[in-house]
Design brief:
single chain, 423 residues, alpha/beta, four-stranded mixed β-sheet, 13 helices, binds pyridoxal-5'-phosphate
């Protein structure tokens, strides 16, 4: 059997250096809340492939749906010869996403592609050029989505010039904005848009309801509703990027539901299809249908195997009530994290919703980010067999995204390792 070390040697010779990996362990198999590497070592999975395998790796329904679809046909291209599963995924997304209005969906391959297409739809429908995004935002790695993403290293560094007509305004970040009230934080951002961009030039306001790569930043209550209200009044398309927060992750199907916000468009990917590449834009029918025939699409968008996996994943989420599972995981994890953090001056905040929780690490007695301490805690987790990720503009946030089917035992063992890593 080939070892991780041997595979790593081959990888260095074959794979471009720019593609990184969190741990040097090569995967043999994965399921439930664990990953087993080719050396036979078991890892407890607090990453879920960055919030993708919400239903777990190789979830039984997904495996069966993929197998059955692969036997029937693997690809015709929906733009050439359509098929039912694409339509069925769109029907389900239209029904599941917030907003009682008539909706349409279109399917793509990756989150970045969904975001690009949401911007296309908003620009086309409004006839306006500008897109407003927020500090700490992450929306992808394509040229437009790099422009929409805030952080330079590693996402943007020396990859410019970037797409134009992108404007950035402050995010509500209670730990770092003095606990500004949500409505006041929104007013600050809105004033900046009106004075520096002009509302009449803005096609879309694009926001993650809880920021992902930017540090699991949960805006103060009232921030999202105030922006939603302003966008309606200004004729601006409110786009929620639910690529990381969607599909039961935060304890609801979509994170916007925590504050009853109904976006005009929602971008979806990651958790949608149990690990197969699929993404979507779902939203108001009048906006989506404004685009001429042939204006949206792509060779692989809504691939039949990915659609079959998405239907099976959504069925699994309903059957196992994974939104409730996320709330349960959040309660157990939140309590343990707060206990671990109590009296540890490096922990500035434990935050998040449902099974999307994080700890922000600072130099004791300050709000100065401590990425070195964060990396050290993360490395201690990895050494002990717990797969955790870091994030944040300052690289000082440990984030936890277990599969929503993780067992109580696996969750408990993972939290024990985490507590020990804090020392
Ligand atoms: C909020 C958000 N938007 C967009 C993306 C980009 O998705 P993808 O990597 O599938 O292009 C991500 C990925 O992490 C994300 O978290």
């Amino acid at each position: 059997m080939t070892t991780s070390e041997e595979l790593h040697k081959r990888r260095v010779e074959a794979v471009a250096r720019g593609v990184g990996s969190t741990v040097p362990a090569y995967v043999d198999r994965a399921g439930g809340g664990t990953i087993t590497d080719v050396d036979g070592r078991e890892w407890i999975d607090f990453a879920a492939g960055i919030a993708v395998t919400n239903v777990g790796n190789s979830a039984p329904r997904v495996v069966e749906a993929v197998r059955a679809q692969a036997e029937r046909f693997t690809h015709t291209c929906f733009m050439i010869a359509p098929y039912e599963s694409y339509v069925a995924v769109c029907e389900q997304l239209n029904a599941l996403t917030p907003g009682g209005f008539e909706k349409r969906s279109a399917l793509f391959n990756s989150g970045a592609e969904a975001v690009e297409n949401a911007v296309k739809v908003a620009r086309h429908a409004t006839g306006r050029p500008a897109v407003v995004v927020f500090d700490h935002a992450y929306h992808g790695r394509t040229n437009l989505t790099m422009a929409l993403t805030a952080k330079n290293m590693p996402y943007k560094h020396r990859f410019g010039p970037f797409a134009g007509e992108v404007y950035r305004v402050p995010m509500s970040y209670p730990l770092r904005d003095g606990g500004l009230d949500g409505a006041i934080a929104a007013a600050r951002s809105i004033e900046m848009i009106e004075k520096q961009v002009g509302a009449e030039n803005v096609a879309a306001l694009l926001i993650e309801p809880i920021q992902g790569e930017g540090g699991f930043v949960v805006p103060a209550p009232g921030f999202l509703p105030a922006l939603r209200e302003w966008a309606t009044a200004a004729g601006v398309v409110f786009v929620a990027d639910e690529i990381q927060t969607g599909f039961c992750r935060t304890g609801y199907w979509f994170a916007c539901e925590h504050e009853g916000v109904q976006p005009d468009l929602i971008t979806l990917a990651k958790g949608i299809a149990g690990g197969l590449p699929l993404a979507a834009v779902t939203g108001r029918a009048d906006l989506m249908d404004a685009v001429h025939v042939g204006g949206l699409g792509g060779t692989y968008g809504g691939n039949p195997i990915a659609c079959a996996a998405a239907l099976a994943s959504m069925e699994t989420m309903r059957e196992l009530d994974l939104a409730a599972a996320a709330r349960r995981i959040g309660a157990v994890m939140g309590e343990r994290l707060r206990a671990t953090a109590a009296g540890d001056p490096r922990v500035a905040e434990v935050r998040g919703r449902g099974a999307m929780l994080a700890v922000e690490i600072v130099q004791p007695g300050t709000l100065t980010p401590d990425p070195a301490a964060t990396a050290a805690i993360s490395a201690a987790c990895h050494a002990a067999g717990l797969l955790t990720l870091t994030c944040g503009t300052y690289g000082n946030v440990l984030r936890f995204l277990p599969p929503l089917v993780i067992s109580d035992d696996e969750l408990g063992r993972g939290l024990d390792i985490l507590a020990a890593a804090f020392g």
